[in-house]
Protein backbone atom coordinates (compact mmCIF):
# COMPACT_ATOMS: atom_id res chain seq x y z
CA UNK A 1 0.00 0.00 0.00
CA UNK A 2 2.86 2.33 0.74
CA UNK A 3 4.49 1.90 -2.68
CA UNK A 4 1.16 2.61 -4.42
CA UNK A 5 0.84 5.91 -2.59
CA UNK A 6 4.37 6.89 -3.53
CA UNK A 7 3.69 6.13 -7.19
CA UNK A 8 0.84 8.63 -7.22
CA UNK A 9 2.71 11.42 -5.48
CA UNK A 10 4.43 12.86 -8.63
CA UNK A 11 1.09 13.15 -10.40
CA UNK A 12 -0.47 14.87 -7.38
CA UNK A 13 2.47 17.24 -7.18
CA UNK A 14 2.09 18.12 -10.85
CA UNK A 15 -1.61 18.82 -10.36
CA UNK A 16 -0.91 21.12 -7.42
CA UNK A 17 1.74 22.97 -9.40
CA UNK A 18 -0.63 23.39 -12.34
CA UNK A 19 -3.34 24.85 -10.09
CA UNK A 20 -0.89 27.27 -8.53
CA UNK A 21 0.33 28.41 -11.94
CA UNK A 22 -3.22 29.06 -13.13
CA UNK A 23 -3.92 31.02 -9.96
CA UNK A 24 -0.82 33.16 -10.41
CA UNK A 25 -1.69 33.90 -14.05
CA UNK A 26 -5.28 34.77 -13.11
CA UNK A 27 -4.07 37.13 -10.39
CA UNK A 28 -1.57 38.85 -12.64
CA UNK A 29 -4.00 39.54 -15.50
CA UNK A 30 -5.98 42.42 -13.85
CA UNK A 31 -2.78 44.19 -12.88
CA UNK A 32 -1.46 44.04 -16.44
CA UNK A 33 -4.77 45.27 -17.82
CA UNK A 34 -4.80 48.27 -15.47
CA UNK A 35 -1.30 49.24 -16.59
CA UNK A 36 -2.44 49.21 -20.22
CA UNK A 37 -5.06 51.90 -19.54
CA UNK A 38 -3.25 55.23 -19.61
CA UNK A 39 0.01 53.75 -18.35
CA UNK A 40 -1.10 54.15 -14.71
CA UNK A 41 -2.21 51.57 -12.21
CA UNK A 42 -5.64 52.00 -10.69
CA UNK A 43 -6.14 50.58 -7.26
CA UNK A 44 -9.16 48.36 -6.83
CA UNK A 45 -11.44 49.64 -4.12
CA UNK A 46 -11.95 47.43 -1.06
CA UNK A 47 -14.87 45.09 -1.24
CA UNK A 48 -16.93 46.84 1.42
CA UNK A 49 -16.89 50.10 -0.58
CA UNK A 50 -18.36 48.42 -3.67
CA UNK A 51 -21.37 46.82 -2.08
CA UNK A 52 -24.41 46.56 -4.31
CA UNK A 53 -27.91 45.23 -3.82
CA UNK A 54 -28.20 41.48 -4.04
CA UNK A 55 -30.76 41.68 -6.84
CA UNK A 56 -28.31 43.71 -8.97
CA UNK A 57 -25.54 41.12 -8.59
CA UNK A 58 -27.88 38.38 -9.71
CA UNK A 59 -29.05 40.38 -12.69
CA UNK A 60 -25.53 41.28 -13.87
CA UNK A 61 -24.24 37.70 -13.97
CA UNK A 62 -21.89 35.50 -11.96
CA UNK A 63 -20.75 36.69 -8.57
CA UNK A 64 -17.38 38.47 -8.61
CA UNK A 65 -14.84 39.09 -5.88
CA UNK A 66 -12.81 42.31 -6.22
CA UNK A 67 -9.16 41.77 -5.29
CA UNK A 68 -6.57 44.18 -3.96
CA UNK A 69 -3.33 43.78 -5.93
CA UNK A 70 -1.44 46.53 -4.15
CA UNK A 71 0.94 44.09 -2.47
CA UNK A 72 1.64 42.32 -5.77
CA UNK A 73 2.22 45.52 -7.72
CA UNK A 74 4.70 46.81 -5.18
CA UNK A 75 6.98 43.86 -5.92
CA UNK A 76 6.02 42.84 -9.45
CA UNK A 77 9.53 41.72 -10.43
CA UNK A 78 9.62 39.14 -7.67
CA UNK A 79 6.09 38.03 -8.54
CA UNK A 80 7.03 37.40 -12.18
CA UNK A 81 10.14 35.48 -11.11
CA UNK A 82 7.92 33.19 -9.04
CA UNK A 83 5.64 32.57 -12.02
CA UNK A 84 8.64 31.76 -14.23
CA UNK A 85 10.10 29.34 -11.69
CA UNK A 86 6.75 27.62 -11.23
CA UNK A 87 6.25 27.27 -14.99
CA UNK A 88 9.71 25.74 -15.40
CA UNK A 89 8.99 23.28 -12.61
CA UNK A 90 6.01 21.98 -14.62
CA UNK A 91 8.22 20.76 -17.49
CA UNK A 92 9.13 17.50 -15.72
CA UNK A 93 5.42 16.83 -15.20
CA UNK A 94 4.79 16.72 -18.95
CA UNK A 95 8.07 14.90 -19.55
CA UNK A 96 6.90 12.01 -17.37
CA UNK A 97 4.28 11.15 -19.97
CA UNK A 98 6.85 10.69 -22.74
CA UNK A 99 8.73 7.51 -23.57
CA UNK A 100 12.11 7.88 -21.89
CA UNK A 101 14.20 5.32 -23.82
CA UNK A 102 15.07 5.03 -27.49
CA UNK A 103 14.19 1.67 -29.05
CA UNK A 104 16.36 -0.30 -31.45
CA UNK A 105 15.16 -0.81 -35.03
CA UNK A 106 17.27 -2.95 -37.36
CA UNK A 107 17.18 -1.89 -41.01
CA UNK A 108 14.72 -3.68 -43.26
CA UNK A 109 17.25 -3.59 -46.09
CA UNK A 110 19.63 -6.30 -44.90
CA UNK A 111 22.20 -5.38 -47.54
CA UNK A 112 23.16 -2.32 -45.46
CA UNK A 113 25.35 -4.02 -42.87
CA UNK A 114 27.94 -3.40 -40.20
CA UNK A 115 31.58 -4.41 -40.76
CA UNK A 116 30.99 -8.06 -39.81
CA UNK A 117 27.85 -8.47 -41.93
CA UNK A 118 25.33 -8.05 -39.09
CA UNK A 119 22.38 -5.74 -39.86
CA UNK A 120 22.79 -2.03 -39.18
CA UNK A 121 20.06 -0.06 -37.47
CA UNK A 122 19.07 2.95 -35.40
CA UNK A 123 17.49 3.89 -32.09
CA UNK A 124 14.40 6.11 -32.06
CA UNK A 125 12.25 7.88 -29.48
CA UNK A 126 9.13 9.32 -31.06
CA UNK A 127 7.39 12.42 -29.76
CA UNK A 128 3.77 12.32 -30.91
CA UNK A 129 2.61 15.60 -32.38
CA UNK A 130 6.10 17.06 -32.71
CA UNK A 131 7.44 18.02 -36.13
CA UNK A 132 10.96 18.54 -34.89
CA UNK A 133 13.53 15.81 -35.52
CA UNK A 134 17.05 15.27 -34.25
CA UNK A 135 19.30 12.73 -35.98
CA UNK A 136 22.60 11.95 -34.27
CA UNK A 137 25.44 10.01 -35.96
CA UNK A 138 27.77 8.24 -33.56
CA UNK A 139 31.51 8.63 -34.11
CA UNK A 140 34.36 6.23 -33.39
CA UNK A 141 37.41 6.54 -35.67
CA UNK A 142 38.05 3.96 -38.42
CA UNK A 143 40.19 1.06 -39.64
CA UNK A 144 41.86 0.81 -43.04
CA UNK A 145 43.31 -2.70 -43.54
CA UNK A 146 42.93 -6.26 -42.26
CA UNK A 147 45.39 -5.78 -39.41
CA UNK A 148 43.79 -2.63 -38.00
CA UNK A 149 40.26 -3.94 -38.53
CA UNK A 150 41.05 -7.26 -36.83
CA UNK A 151 42.45 -5.37 -33.85
CA UNK A 152 39.43 -3.09 -33.78
CA UNK A 153 37.07 -6.07 -33.91
CA UNK A 154 38.75 -7.60 -30.87
CA UNK A 155 38.82 -4.44 -28.74
CA UNK A 156 35.80 -2.41 -29.94
CA UNK A 157 33.37 -4.94 -31.36
CA UNK A 158 30.29 -2.79 -30.76
CA UNK A 159 31.70 -0.34 -33.33
CA UNK A 160 31.81 -3.10 -35.97
CA UNK A 161 28.83 -5.30 -35.15
CA UNK A 162 25.21 -5.02 -34.00
CA UNK A 163 25.11 -8.44 -32.33
CA UNK A 164 25.58 -6.99 -28.82
CA UNK A 165 23.50 -3.84 -29.17
CA UNK A 166 20.89 -3.43 -26.39
CA UNK A 167 17.21 -3.23 -27.30
CA UNK A 168 16.85 0.19 -25.66
CA UNK A 169 19.15 3.11 -25.05
CA UNK A 170 18.80 6.12 -22.72
CA UNK A 171 19.75 9.40 -24.37
CA UNK A 172 22.05 11.94 -22.73
CA UNK A 173 23.07 15.49 -23.59
CA UNK A 174 21.24 16.72 -26.67
CA UNK A 175 19.46 13.34 -26.83
CA UNK A 176 18.20 13.52 -23.26
CA UNK A 177 14.41 13.44 -22.71
CA UNK A 178 14.82 15.52 -19.54
CA UNK A 179 14.12 19.28 -19.96
CA UNK A 180 16.59 20.16 -17.20
CA UNK A 181 19.43 18.56 -19.18
CA UNK A 182 18.15 19.28 -22.69
CA UNK A 183 15.90 22.39 -22.55
CA UNK A 184 15.64 22.95 -26.33
CA UNK A 185 15.25 19.44 -27.79
CA UNK A 186 13.91 17.25 -24.99
CA UNK A 187 10.51 16.73 -26.64
CA UNK A 188 11.69 16.27 -30.25
CA UNK A 189 11.69 13.03 -32.22
CA UNK A 190 15.16 11.66 -31.50
CA UNK A 191 17.18 9.25 -33.64
CA UNK A 192 20.56 7.82 -32.68
CA UNK A 193 22.46 5.95 -35.42
CA UNK A 194 25.15 3.64 -33.97
CA UNK A 195 28.48 3.61 -35.79
CA UNK A 196 29.43 0.13 -37.02
CA UNK A 197 30.98 0.67 -40.46
CA UNK A 198 34.45 2.02 -39.48
CA UNK A 199 34.54 4.23 -42.58
CA UNK A 200 33.57 7.68 -41.26
CA UNK A 201 30.07 7.13 -42.71
CA UNK A 202 31.43 7.25 -46.28
CA UNK A 203 31.75 3.67 -47.55
CA UNK A 204 29.62 1.66 -49.97
CA UNK A 205 31.54 -1.63 -50.17
CA UNK A 206 29.76 -4.85 -49.11
CA UNK A 207 31.43 -7.83 -47.53
CA UNK A 208 32.71 -10.34 -50.12
CA UNK A 209 34.76 -13.52 -50.27
CA UNK A 210 37.81 -11.40 -50.96
CA UNK A 211 37.04 -8.86 -48.23
CA UNK A 212 36.53 -9.86 -44.60
CA UNK A 213 34.69 -6.65 -43.73
CA UNK A 214 31.95 -4.47 -45.21
CA UNK A 215 32.26 -0.68 -45.29
CA UNK A 216 28.78 0.71 -45.95
CA UNK A 217 28.45 3.87 -43.88
CA UNK A 218 26.86 6.02 -46.59
CA UNK A 219 24.40 3.25 -47.48
CA UNK A 220 23.41 2.89 -43.82
CA UNK A 221 22.56 6.60 -43.59
CA UNK A 222 20.53 6.39 -46.80
CA UNK A 223 18.49 3.46 -45.51
CA UNK A 224 17.94 5.06 -42.10
CA UNK A 225 16.52 8.19 -43.74
CA UNK A 226 14.31 6.10 -46.05
CA UNK A 227 12.76 4.30 -43.09
CA UNK A 228 12.33 7.48 -41.07
CA UNK A 229 10.37 9.05 -43.93
CA UNK A 230 7.66 6.47 -43.30
CA UNK A 231 7.76 7.24 -39.56
CA UNK A 232 6.89 10.93 -39.96
CA UNK A 233 10.13 12.55 -41.11
CA UNK A 234 8.46 13.58 -44.38
CA UNK A 235 6.30 16.00 -42.35
CA UNK A 236 9.19 17.42 -40.34
CA UNK A 237 9.35 21.17 -39.84
CA UNK A 238 12.89 21.12 -38.44
CA UNK A 239 15.62 18.49 -38.85
CA UNK A 240 18.85 18.84 -36.89
CA UNK A 241 21.74 16.60 -37.98
CA UNK A 242 24.37 16.16 -35.27
CA UNK A 243 27.18 13.77 -34.44
CA UNK A 244 30.28 13.06 -32.44
Automatic annotation (TrEMBL):
Annotated signal peptide: 1-33
Gene Ontology terms: biological process: negative regulation of canonical Wnt signaling pathway
One Pfam family this sequence matches: PAE
Chain intervals for the UniProt region annotation (Disordered): 34-59
Family named by the database record: Belongs to the pectinacetylesterase family. Notum subfamily.
Name of the protein in its database record: Notum pectinacetylesterase 1a
Keyword flag Membrane: no
InterPro entries: PAE/NOTUM (IPR004963)
Keywords: Signal
Keyword check for Transmembrane helix: no
GO molecular function terms noted in the UniProt entry: palmitoleyl hydrolase activity
Compositionally skewed regions (Low complexity) per UniProt: 42-54
Amino acid sequence: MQSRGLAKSPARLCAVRSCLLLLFIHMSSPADARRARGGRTQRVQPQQEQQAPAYRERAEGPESFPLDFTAVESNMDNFMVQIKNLAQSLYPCSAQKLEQDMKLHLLKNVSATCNDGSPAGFYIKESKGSRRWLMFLEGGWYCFNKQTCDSRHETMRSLMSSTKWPQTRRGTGILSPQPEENPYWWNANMVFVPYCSSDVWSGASPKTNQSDYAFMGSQIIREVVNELLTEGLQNAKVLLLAGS
